[in-house]
## 1
Amino acid sequence: MTRPENIQIETSPPISDEIRKTTCYMCACRCGINVHLKNGQVAYIEGNRDHPVNKGVLCGKGSSGIMQHYAPSRLRAPLKRVGPRGSGEFEEISWDEALDIAVSWLEPIRESDPKKLAFFTGRDQSQSFTAFWGQSYGTPNHAAHGGFCSVNMAAGGIYTMGGAFWEFGQPDWDRTKLFVLFGVAEDHDSNPIKIGIGKMKGHGGKVMGINPIRSGYNAVADDWVGITPGTDGLLILSIVHELFRSGKVDLDYLRRYTNAGFIVNEAEGPQKGLFIRDKDGKPLVIDQNTGKADAFDKPGVIANLAASHDGNRTVFQLMAAKYLSAEYAPEAVAERCGLTAQRIRNIAAEFARVAFEEEISLDVEWTDWKGEKHDKMIGRPISFHAMRGISAHSNGFQTARALHVLQILLGSVEVPGGFRFKPPYPKPVEAHPRPHAGVTPGKPLDGPHLGYPLGPEHLLIDDEGKAKRIDKAFTWENPFSAHGMMHMVISNAHAGDPYKIDTLFLYMANMAWNSSMNTGDVIRMLTDKDENGDYVIPHIIYSDAYSSETVAYADLILPDTTYLERYDCISLLDRPICEAEAAADSIRWPLVEPDRDVRPFQNVLVELANRMKLPGFTDEDGNAKWADYADYIQNHERRPGVGPLSGFRGKDGSKSGRGEANPNQIQAYIDNGGFWIGHIPEEAQFYKPWNKAYQDWAVEIGLYDSPQFYAFNLYVEPLRKMQLAAEGHGETQPPDNLRERIKRTMDPLPIWYEPFEDSNVDVSEFNVHALTQRPMQMYHSWGSQNAWLRQITGKNAMYLPKKIWEKQGFEEGDYARISSVHGSIVVPVALHEGLNDQTIWTWNAIGKRKGAWALDEKATEATEGFLLNHLIHELQPPKGDGMRWSNSDPVTGQAAWFDLRVKVEKAVPKPSEAQPVFPPIKSPVGKGPKVVARKI
Amino acid sequence: MHPAPSVIIFTSISGLGFGLLMWLGLGIPDFYGVASFGVFFMAYALSVGGLLSSVFHLGNKKNAIYAFSQWQTSWLSREGVLAVITLLVFAVYAIGRIFFALNLPVFGYVGAALALLTVFSTSMIYTQLKTVPRWNMAINPVLFLTYAIAGGALLSMQPTVAGVLILLVTVLQWAGWIMGDKRLLDTGSDKGTATGLGAVGKVRMFETAHTARNYILDEMVYHVGRKHSQKLRIIATLLIGVIPVAMLLLLPASMPMAIAVLVIHLAGVFTSRWLFFAEAEHVVSLYYSRG
Amino acid sequence: MTKLPQETRKKLGLVIDLDTCVGCHGCVTACKGWNTQNYGAPLSDIDPYGADPEGTFLNRVFNYEIAPKDGGPSQTVHFPKSCLHCEDAPCVTVCPTGASYKRVEDGIVLVNEDRCIGCGLCAWACPYGARELDRDAGIMKKCTLCVDRIYNDNIPEVDRVPACVRTCPAGARHFGDLGDPDSDVSKLVAERGGFDLMPEQGTRPVNKYLPPRPKDTLDKTPPKALETVAEEPTGFLGWLDKALERL
Ligand SMILES: Nc1nc2c(c(=O)[nH]1)N[C@H]1C(S)=C(S)[C@@H](COP(=O)(O)OP(=O)(O)OC[C@H]3O[C@@H](n4cnc5c(=O)[nH]c(N)nc54)[C@H](O)[C@@H]3O)O[C@H]1N2
Ligand SMILES: Nc1nc2c(c(=O)[nH]1)N[C@H]1C(S)=C(S)[C@@H](COP(=O)(O)OP(=O)(O)OC[C@H]3O[C@@H](n4cnc5c(=O)[nH]c(N)nc54)[C@H](O)[C@@H]3O)O[C@H]1N2
Ligand code: SF4
Ligand code: SF4
Ligand code: SF4
Ligand code: SF4
Ligand code: SF4
Ligand SMILES: [Mo]
């Protein structure tokens, strides 16, 4: 017998024929990947060590990308609906026919009334391009999914400090000593957060997780604060109260870099609450040295926070008056937050201790916006990150604001050890565009669809106050809906309110399933017919790459490729892959040819534009400017010298940021591993909004055309302008039924109010909060088509806290009926002890429709798995006056998914399947194989 | 452990076969010629059939020949080797008796010893496993051997001897069950030692690694309810011992009766073997079970 | 051959940090991907798109909750588990064919697929559930410690670590020679009090686990309480004036 030392194994086998480097698209984190090919086929995917985002690592999704690429659910050819909507009965057609059909619907309405097209894109990574298309087409009805996702976070951040958490900033992982996470399960910054937490723990830092649920990041957190949902704003403002009470705020930072020293007009009248300004319109501060009122940004001026001007106080004094009030004392809020007063005091003390007693200082010289030279960079090593746990509530905008204000009071934004922006942020709200909805038949829209209103004058309403957009974004109902409101499109289009549309064009959004706030209702609306027997929404075009639930509800399917088969551009014009130290962008490129009759969606948009001769896509001679998306990526210029990709610009590829188009730019990216990175100079690494070196660098690489210095907005004047209107000032007036709400919720200083659902439903009956969390290894609904991932999470249970579990005598294997005011579901339950005792939760988007995703109709996803969405609704239950408010944040329109209130009852006998059950849809791609053992 | 029919059949039938061989080796019953062909045929059919059945359990039969190679360390290998040698030794003995009316008692005695060793090896395949505390007890080899000898006695038509042995098996089996019930506890293994987190506090499963099935779950995390297993123990007791002994004592000896006793006893053996697997807790279940 | 070596020249293994593992399953799918394309038969999935899928994985991540003895809030721990490459590996000695063996040069426990009969006994003998019989190939599968990566001249030197270690975003997996007391992994184990799983089984695992650091200490050892400078706005203004002067 061979002895083990004599057994020969090959320890040095060849791995693959070739490695191609591109960008992962198993989620929006956009890590760099090395794709190994064997015999021209994808064999293995690993992380790209040189890549700025992931530095070589990959998460569970990224590492299983190969199974997405080979998924049997991939669509195979354009489809024309032949059965009724929702049946899943289709006929495969040619691309020519598909494009003809699309043009035959799109062209006539463009000539007559472009707003009859609603073009909404979901988890789109080419937003600057799709928006450009929408703008060229001329419809005001375009947005991506941000409105139901996290616009509270984005808008709260932009209005307060010219940048948000999200993908737009990150902690200084190397130096931070306390990292505080509010309401995050996974987020877009998926691998960087994981890398960061690992790094922090390695150097002895601590993590605090503020979350009703202890799992994932909150499980590894050193301290877990199991807060009651919807009350973070209260907790934060109580911490702010403690900081004011003890004077633990960074006064020097506040007076130099924020509007804490701005003088607020306190006289009654139309100017009340606005800043007092000089004749150039610049807000005034009282200079500490001269005692005189001067423009806030004048060189040499340092604001005196304690001063007053004609009896008008500074922002900082207004804050002290507000937050020192007893209503924010820990004792007053603790119970509501599900915490003890002592715990809140300890948290505040810990924040202050880390910020001020662990101060760090880097010996780096820099020059500030007023020309003052500093020989050090002072750091406050406490950093924060937050996401949908605070933003997906109807008080989320103000809560996000409160959190940013807390960070600023601690002096921990854009400083060593604190939170840092990633280019193109910081970018003040003024530097963002305003929203546009000026429609002219046959012509492009008068400007970008989305933006940040600075007052009532920027709302998109007509003279009667009627919404110009189908989703009613930028109206009095949600004035600062900076990302649009995708969750309202289908219900508004169905109701014909504010008007009827002709074609609904969707891309990459599973609106007939997990993306809708109420799935059953949306399915009803998509299939509803008018008195003539025609569908209420006449045409639906959809682009998906896979056999998702929504495919069944479209009339025309434009099948996309997988992420390894197409060009993509992750651009500084929308959501780039930058790090705090560097600007960076990246591409995807076709590593392999599709084996099906599918086309990249962006190419299809170019083709549609060319057929319709859309202005942005057509030159003066009427010829198409771009053959396809790759051509556009390389040759389109937004502003002279600035295009979708920042790297390797100039004829010879030697320029970064600005430069003429380079005909070999994409190849240069490919040769560089699929990305480009441009480092920020050392003296420009921190204090970016006020750092001359940074601003010069930003102008140089084309992030903007002139320096954009600004002060952080503790006090947000545009909010006050909306309040003034509600108080009766100004020409643009809100409807009377909204006045009180606007006055209350659009406070220029952060406030907390009860989530709307808490006031609209009987909380003694619906006595628990119900949440979802993203599983780290699943991306929304698409994970289930992945044979590896679906084995990890192929069904979900409703997790109940011990209190409910024991009180109602639940046992393993039991089902419960979970009801909200909108409906009920009957689902499997399980115990989770690390859970706030007023909260239940489940994994998001595991439940699947029978027949979708090329899964067996008896797949556990469809028999035991379930969606929480059946219990949610895009509208609140009717109020006393019969009006139904949208279930959204009143400022931004952000969908309030997590306001949901439910009751829990044991379901006896338990059903044979989780309820509700929808009839199966016919799979347009058949079913997957019985065995997979693929060795290439 | 998953009570796979192939292993239940393997251990029960081959045990019976080698038990019978053991008696035949001792010259009981002392048959020659055709009569002896009958009993040898039965013994070979049972032992070889049992062994073949175990082959069904294999995922990759084409390498089966290698299974004889590791007799120095592996009980499974030893069992294979011993079974083959036993059958070869008995072949000489049987050929002598069947074809030449020749008794070769040395082969008989050596064969009988080998048959017992084979059964012992079979038992050691299970007994050696520390991971299955219920199996990892000295009484298990004793039980396997007693089962084999008792069954062999029945087959070799020795009602009295068989009766006594069957009673002994029944008593031993109860002892085995009772001892087994607290074996897992005795090992000191629990979720705390399995995860190493016991020092922090009481450990419970929150989410299993995969919601889908896997080999470990199918094979090792089988669970029978307490009530169910108590019921089966009583049934097994009745079938293995109580009813056969009563029949042997109370009914006049006859061929049909002997067959009936045999069948009933066999049913009992299968039941107890089913329990042997189904009740056996593998320590890996500590990683998988809730509670 | 299934006799265990007296001593192996190295004790290569993994050290898994239960304090940092966030439970992302990256190591699970990276392992599945690598080992499907490399050593031996591919790791199969049976009924992968059906009602009852069952696939072979060499590494799985469990989730446990702990109710702390001191009464603090319940803790959640993500718990990755693969073969521990035991020094006294019972899976090796039970193997009838000699397919299972422990390498003398580095202590890696492997299955020689040209020998394995798929009898499953080794999986029975393993206390940790670290071996899975592949239903398609009928062969026993287990973690190879990526023996075809760690010595592989065809990949860059930095990448000569197991696939799961290379991919782990949280840096919760470490690889090295646990037989060398001066190796990084040995030092880490010593520093953090690394432990064995089920030591009472006598398997002497090479892989070690690092315990979670003490949790929820804020209220037990609170920071110094914040002192009041002012209870109401007027007092605050007075304080502010002085504080600004001091700057
Ligand atoms: N793996 C994976 N990654 C993803 C996605 C995915 O599907 N899978 N989706 C991407 C998308 S589109 C998005 S929008 C992001 C979202 O990323 P996350 O914001 O991490 O989204 P959720 O999983 O919804 O997690 C919300 C968290 O907030 C907590 N929470 C809920 N209500 C409250 C509250 O009132 N207070 C506090 N403090 N916490 C609360 C929940 O317990 C949960 O932990 O993730 C992105 N990344
Ligand atoms: N209960 C509850 N519901 C929620 C949330 C929640 O927290 N709780 N979160 C909400 C949030 S924040 C979001 S962002 C949404 C996300 O929900 P969705 O926008 O529905 O996201 P996905 O399920 O990922 O669906 C996107 C669609 O894109 C398709 N797709 C994937 N890759 C490609 C591709 O390469 N090309 C094309 N053309 N299509 C592709 C997928 O097949 C899928 O049908 O869910 C929302 N729904
Ligand atoms: S976080 Fe994971 S899924 Fe998302 S891009 Fe990175 S590797 Fe891919
Ligand atoms: S963990 Fe299990 S399979 Fe690995 S060496 Fe130890 S006993 Fe063998
Ligand atoms: S399954 Fe293979 S490796 Fe395991 S004991 Fe049997 S022959 Fe040996
Ligand atoms: S070392 Fe290799 S085989 Fe073992 S678990 Fe890690 S990736 Fe899998
Ligand atoms: S990859 Fe790392 S963090 Fe993720 S589950 Fe595995 S060990 Fe844990
Ligand atoms: Mo989202």
Note: Residues 254 and 260 of chain B are 10 Å apart (CA to CA).
## 2
Amino acid sequence: MKLNNRPSDRFDWTLAFILLLFLIVSTVAIASAQTTGQYNINFVPSQIQWYVVGAAIIAVMMYFDPEQYKKAAWIIYGGGVFLLFMLFILPEGMELVARRNNAKSWFHLPGLGSIQPAEFMKTFYIIGAARLITMHNENNLNRTPQTDLLLLAKIMGLLIVPLFFIMKQPDLGTALVFIAITAALILVSGITWKIIVPLYAGTAAFGAILIWMAVYMQDFLVKTFGFSAYQFARIYSWLDPYAYPSDEGRHLITSLNAIGSGMIGGKGFQGREVYVPEAHTDFIFAIIGEDWGFIGASLVISLYFVLIYHLTRTTLQLKDPFSTYVCTGIIAMITFHVFQNVGMTIQLLPITGIPLPLISYGGSSIMGNMLALGLVFSMKFHHRTYMFSADPEE
Amino acid sequence: MNRRRRSSKQETPKQKLRKNTTFRMNVLFFTIFLLFSSLVLRLGYLQIVKGEDYKRVIERTEEISVNTSVPRGRIYDRTGQILVGNEPKRAITYTKKQSTKTDEMLEVARGLSALIEKDPEDVTQRDKKDFWILLNKDEAYDRVSDKEKKAINSDETKSKTERQRELDSLVRDKITEADLEAMSPEEVEVLAIYREMTSGYNYSPQIIKSGDVTPEEYARVSERLHELPGVNTTTDWERVRNSELAILGQTTTPKEGLPGDDLQYYLARGYSRNDRVGKSFIEKQYESVLQGQKTIAKNITDKAGNVLETVPVQEGQPGKDLVLSIDSELQKKAEEVVSRHVLSIKNGRNSQMFDRIFFVMMDPNNGEILSMVGKQAIRNKETGKYEVYDRTFGTYQDAYEAGSTIKMATILAGYQHGGATVGQTMIDAPMHFRGTPPKRSLFNWYNSIPVNDITAITRSSNVYMWKIAIGIGGGSYVPNGPLSIDSQAIDRFRHSFASFGLGVETGIDLPDEAAGQHPSNPSSSNVLDFAIGQYDTYTTMQLAQYVSTIANGGYRVAPRVVKEIREPSPDGKKLGPIATELPAKYLNRVSNSDNQIERMKQGMYTVYYDRRGTAYSTFSDTEGYKAAGKTGTAERRYYEADRKDPWFGKPTVNVSHVGFAPYEDPEIAYAVLAPNVSSNTNSIPHPNNEIAREMTDFYFELKEQRIKSGEAGANIEGALKESEDGTVIREGEGE
């Protein structure tokens, strides 16, 4: 195999180009969303700023090689959990802690703005989990169902800590991202199908039954499991927003009206007619669907697919198991974000507040994703180093 | 061991894991592919398949109908006299926009309060509190302690709006009487105006002051319209009625708004909540005609939702006018006659159960109702005297046993089903059935008298009817034998009766018509009662339709109070051109031959002019016209009252009368129904016959008078004629 010696050859130009395309889509969409004058700020320059910050993060991330990340995995993971823990215990009255949309998810840093630790915790968790799986597989070369169960238990243990703090904020959307990342990692970690198939099928069936019961057996759920009736509103407003025009139901209806009326070709830049709240952040896809129609919306989805495809190809090239697991986690994270965010705007999934990666306006979201992609850049960049060590020794 | 053997295939665990990982990555990638495909499929469904629908949804929400207060249609009687009209009133309105802010409205209210006087009588304590909070927002919310605020905000089982509501009500509680006392009268006036402004709906002009706006106020506001965004000086239309006639119905006032029961019905048809709508009788039935068409306008908005301009898509139109079939003069007379009889009977003897009389006169040829009257005597609690109230709706909603007036229908049913034949003679003699007292005709208690189909009507033979009933029931009369009538007999009877309009809705163009009672599973004895009109109950309108069907030769025609719909009158005096002529509605032809119907007409003629006729004493001396009719007396028990009423269940008598005139070429058919006229069955007053006679006389007098004055044609209905230019002139038409 030919060695890539020059740094410029080892840099992942394709990924960089894809990110440039996302920057263009993001700024155009945000600019198109700013028609209502709801905010007095122009979000476009600050989004570009966040991208610049993101590029810096990638550069810093590339400075370290994957082996170093692997070594520092527990510190990174522990640091993330510490941040979540601080957010959890610090009293609400403090200047440092900000409550937005009824969730205690933000650190307010004077002069710098607000950051959402959970956005970074996703990547930290991926690094921790990748290290855990790598170590386990190295120590248990002879796989048995028992060792697989042990691995599963370890992963669950690693997941439960951040999940607890995030559920307490509460932030259901981010919690679901963690679960999606874990599901992908379990799949790729090599755990036998005999465990995976019943586990996944069981979870899916449980979820389906819960939704079914929320619709048809509400009283039973309230009496037996202590749910509150208002918790079902999310389900109802998703399944039939016209009959349950709560805040979420109305949000969904406006989103459907916006996207649906975009039809094939869309209404053009700033051609929107439907007022969709939070159009520049969580509901940016409604703008894309309305202004550029089916063609534009499908192209954006395709762009994500190209990104995922590139990441998958990269993963398969990387021989090092640690890198493979990290990439898998990142793929799962981005996929779930896209699927959940786009899905909620088109009534495929219930509404949860998570942004569309790389397009929605927001510093934490951009930085969090850049952090994750920085790892991929780093792995690609330092790949050569592992050519030999990753080769079979025997 | 196992593993060893596999590794002999030259695969280390690491390689195996690597291969496995690659496979699983592909599984993951395929799953992602499926997820993304579902997104694209769903998008395609929304944007391509359903796109047009969503586009339409958006367009619909953009178009709004603007309440322009078009005048409601007028109502005229058949001779062109105006019964209900509109009077223009000066009004000051305010139109709120979606984007209008509270501060802007407050400013406009202040400006207006300087220009007009507004009576603060409707302002409530609660309004004052809300207004106080509005003016002193910070102070008001500061009165709630942080602790209380936190307690409300931390309750996560409630939605944001619920929490806000809770906080607001807490703030309201903290406002003291003293705070409200401190409000100056000027501030209260501003509040009174502000209150009206906020009670309107977006883009729908809300009346701030109407009716008592002085010309000075109107002028002052008109001059300063540009300083008062949203305010306008305009004309409001008030409904004015020149007739006491109850069936004209009532409309809601803008304050009452749409009737709550039908709110969704009206909203779905583009009404605003403060619209005037018909809530009873003609105003309700013809709501869609009278209402008119509001201006539909489209708002052109900028991207932020601010209205730049409002472009009318469709101009408003005033409501169309109605011309009734009612003749005011005839109606007035009928009301007077019926009222007089109601009072005289109620103030006479044996009238404990009596309180009402109904009268209907219509054109048997086209169903146009010339007069319909229902009057009820109600005791005035203060004076102790009886006063007459209107109960016109009872002519088609109150049903009673009508007695012998329905005997023509019994004989005609007999012709149809084989209970009788034309000219058939039967012996009228008391009938004896096993286990029951003898049954007799009123005119014949002991003898055996031969009667045919005509004399059966003349003398009102019950026995003739019972024999028909037994015949229709497939039996035959055996003296002292058991009474047994086929259960199908009642169905055959009712089917025939319905073809005359008895026991079914007549199809009158007024809301909530009743069909009367038809008990199921009657006994054989009940069927005999049915045949003489003492079992099922009928409305006066049904009786009028029934006698019209006989008078016009067998066509059941739906009665109607509206003759035609006209375009809005140009000046409120002349009628506008005809918009829709409402043709007579023939519901069915009865299954009897012309000859059979002719026999019944002859029978009815003898009722009036044969010495033995039951109405001979009242009708034998008609001058200038010949009529025909039938009287009826039904013995029954009084069940309408409360059980505690001492007269509940006591025997009483209904009297009725049907007829038509002139005999040769009927122009009018009439029916009178007076329930419970006497508690003494041996002393029965006959307002039925007297009212019928008085009204037929009056009709022909009126006709004579109009011919003489050249006002009307030979037929009283020919009062209106269309001229070339569409306006109306009255035209005399000699005979």
Note: Chain A touches chain B through 58 residues (CB under 8 Å).
